[in-house]
What does this fold into?
Amino acid sequence: MQDTLSQPGNPFAVPGHWYKAALHTHTSLSDGLRSPEEVAAWYRDHGFQVLALTDHNLCAEVDGLTGPGFLAIPGAELHPGRTELGEPYHLVAVGIGRPHAYTAQDSVQDAIDALRADGAVVWLAHPYWLGVTLPEIVALRGIIGVEVYNATCEEYAKGLSIVHWDDVLARRRLCWGLAVDDAHWYRSDHGRGWVMVRAPELTVDAILRALAAGHFYASQGPEIHAVEVTSEAIYVRCSPACRISCVSLCGYGGPAAVPGPGEPLTEAVFPRRQMRVYVRVECTDAAGRAAWSQPIMID
Ligand SMILES: [Zn+2]
Ligand SMILES: [Zn+2]
It folds into this structure.
């Protein structure tokens, strides 16, 4: 079996630079507290290089927010159709070229198709908080993934959607995982979830391409430095962790690596033979914050 280093979903196997990105953020143009300029200043001053403004049902003007080493991308959070529970879908679209707005009468799939035709990258926001079912997620065509962590939804104890993600992957559907703030600025909901994007340059086109290809990982704090998948093993390097896990189908993943007495845990190796369908890596630090690699399909 060939090594899978060149597969989609492995940003550690492609050349480029790392960019810290906040991809789901609200401003006072919809239901956020701070202005677009204040929001951009906060992220720029806190080490981010990419910011997507994603106000509800509108596409903010971002041209004046981009500067040296900092890229603002136009986006929106859109609410077409209704879920089985009668709630509007929450889609995040970045790279939007023109305004879009949808209502309950619109088909969620038609909305995704139109946004993609317009050049946008689209994903499903906060599945746990939204209460969407697995069949509803699997039915969506053309989204790049789901938010596995949403800091604002965590205020309601529904920030993590790991189970939704693994359930989709178990059906052999490639699905990237994103971490986002979904900041509204009324609480401490900023700087808590982001993605690290591997791209050749800091341009809208390069960032969108990298997101679509899965050339990024999601984090609440830890850094992942390497993920290599060979025919024999999955090798991981990361910032100091208290647990490194390799997750696969059902119970086929490896038991977590934990530090030895007095030793920092910064790498782990998992035998490939026990994995099925997909592998993804989670690194958790002493504060309980996690980083999630993208899944790599292995059979
Ligand atoms: Zn939402
Ligand atoms: Zn939102």
Summary: The radius of gyration is 18 Å. DSSP finds seven helices and 17 strands in the chain. The pocket of zinc ion (ligand 2) is lined by residues 24, 26, 77, 125, 182 (CB under 6 Å). The mean pLDDT is 94.
